Amino acid sequence: MFNLKGRVAVITGASSGLGTQMAHGLAEQGANLVLLARREDKLLKVATEIESKYGVTVHPVVCDVTQLDSVKGAVQATLDKFGKVDILVNNAGVGTMVPAEKMEDEEWEYNLSIDLTGVFRTAREFGKVMLEAGYGRIINISSMYGMVGNSAAPASAYHAAKGGVVNLTRALAAEWATRGVTVNCICPGYFATELTTDTLKTAEFTTYMERTVPLQRYGNVGELNSAACFLAADESSYVTGVILPIDGGYTCV
Questions:
Q1: Is-contact 189 248, C-beta < 8 A?
Q2: Cα angle for residues 247, 32, 191 (degrees, 5° grid)
Q3: Torsion-angle region of 180 (φ positive above 0: left; ψ -120 to 50: alpha; else: beta)
Q4: Domain count for the chain
Q5: What is the DSSP-derived secondary structure letter of residue 202?
Q6: pTM, rounded to two decimals
Q7: Which residues form the Ketoreductase domain (predicted)?
Q8: What is the pLDDT of residues 41-76, one digit of tens each?
Q9: What is the per-residue pLDDT across 184-213, written as a single tens digit (0 to 9) for each?
Q10: CATH number reported for the structural domain that contains residue 91 in this entry
């Protein structure tokens, strides 16, 4: 069960953090990968590492999800390399921590352009290929902050964008349900990544986490992979529109 051999998985934001972790998880199950991100040097390093470790084919493609031509180019690069796309993990994202009353319009729009519009744009363009083929697994990466507010760090634009991803997932799942394409959403909790580690390692935030997360710890490397593989699998054909928190229990209390 959950064997992904022969499947082609596209992952955005794949040059570091959770994107890289999920790339390892899907490759371990046999999927060939297209890794998308803006930083070519990091992409090449990750691609080489995964190919050598799992023996799958990994195609790194520089892509900016805020630019339509760039996303369309990534679709074409995927088709040129593999002739199809089976799985899309919409992971690229940013997070600005600024009090709402001090946030400039440009900061707000920057967050939404990557975290929400970028997710829609990438799902739409790769979704066209999936819909034509009659098969696809789209996995949008939101956040537990897309489900609730928080009292630790002001991040209204991030909350708004990630909340949008949650309901965008439901909308696409309903719209494409009869056409062979499932659309689901993972909402990670506190995982130490390139974007978050400076905040999470502070004593103040660690104390907050221990008080608010029932498991009283941050997520470990690889703890998203089982969910990604489950939602990507052939066997999960009756699973669509699901919003799955992986947050140590943060959103259950």
A1: yes
A2: 20
A3: left
A4: 1
A5: S
A6: 0.97
A7: 7-180
A8: 999 999 999 999 999 999 999 999 999 999 999 999
A9: 999 999 998 877 788 888 999 899 999 999
A10: 3.40.50.720
